[in-house]
Amino acid sequence: MKKHTAGIHHITAIVGHPQENIDFYAGVLGLRLVKKTVNFDDPGTYHFYFGNEWGKPGTIITYFPWPGAYQGRIGDGQVGVTTYAVPVGAMEFWKKRLAKFNIAYTETVRFGETYLQFKDPHGLQLELVERESGEENSWTFGGVTKEVAIKGFGGAVLYSGRPEETTKTLTEVMGLEVVGREGDYTRFQSTADIGNIIDLKMTKGVRGRMGVGTVHHIAWRANDDEDHLEWKEYAMNKGMYVTDVKDRNYFNSIYFREPGEILFEIATDPPGFARDESFETMGSRLMLPPQYEHLRGRLEASLIPVEVRPLD
Fold first, then answer.
1. Shortest CA distance to 232 belongs to which of 173, 164, 301?
2. d(CA 239, CA 15)
3. CA 73 – CA 96 distance, rounded (Å)
4. Which residues belong to any copy of the VOC domain (predicted)?
């Protein structure tokens, strides 16, 4: 039996000051902060989740803010570029919006698609592409309406220390299909209508170094807990060193580092972000897992106060 992931579940990165992170992804890009919690492995650090109105798999970008930490280096063994999909016809809006906030951008063409490329305040490499596929994001904030709002991930560009081995992982383990080759890139596609396109750079570069401005890991979708356990066994049988299942409250996770040194996670679609607060209030309060609830007073006193605010 060969397994196939539907596509990207989420991408997690390391950034600097938490308010700057929220201002950019909510204030500039118009994403919804769907969950404000802590790093379950380091509760003194925030963990923010941004996505569409529900924070559906395929739309979720998550961050560990490390204010004052050292700058990382984007390179082999990492997600190099995170791609967002916007509705067809929305690109002119985004050019004007980036210019309004003095965010420099460039345009490039890859596999016949035009990409608007720019960086966030902490150095993460991002790009926008117009796509027909993917449902409309009904979340509106700060002048970003549903007609132009980011739908979720278009996909990602991976930088590998061993591109041929990463190709095997994507096809033989994750079940993606090679759909094109162009210049330095091989394009892979999964079955979902969002978070489904992966471009793998086939030439090696500098080795990445984890720190502010780099992606920590990319997570792939599992249907449910039963499918998740099947994925664990399946990946182990393919020669991957897979962790035990981790309870992340909003999904369950397993991790392995593929041969090209990119950290992969497989995460369950359910239960989602409305399990501990209502749809209307998601992201407004610091939510803690049961094991840290007794630390609430200490954590709320030590974490930097943040807010979601519209920007002029």
1. 173
2. 32
3. 29
4. 7-131, 152-269
Q: What is the pLDDT of residues 25-34, one digit of tens each?
A: 999 999 999 9
Contact 88, 68 (CB under 8 A): no
Nearest to 247 by CA among 209, 291, 280, 208: 291
* Beta carbons of 264 and 217 less than 8 angstroms apart: yes
Secondary structure (3-state) at 90: coil
Tokens 């399990």 -> residue: 275
Q: Pull the structure tokens for residue 248.
A: 């992340």
Q: Rounded to whole angstroms, how far apart are CA atoms 178 and 181?
A: 8
The conformational region for residue 138 under phi > 0 = left, psi -120 to 50 = alpha, else beta, is alpha
The CA angle 256-183-150, to the nearest 5 degrees, is 60
Domains in the chain, CATH or no CATH each: 8-302 (3.10.180.10)
pTM for this model (two decimals): 0.97
What are the backbone dihedrals phi and psi of residue 51, each rounded to the nearest 5 degrees, phi first? Answer: -170, -155
Residue 37, classed as helix, strand or coil, is strand
Residue 158 corresponds to which amino acid? L
First CA to last CA distance, the chain: 54
Q: Are strands 125-130 and 78-86 parallel, antiparallel or unpaired?
A: parallel
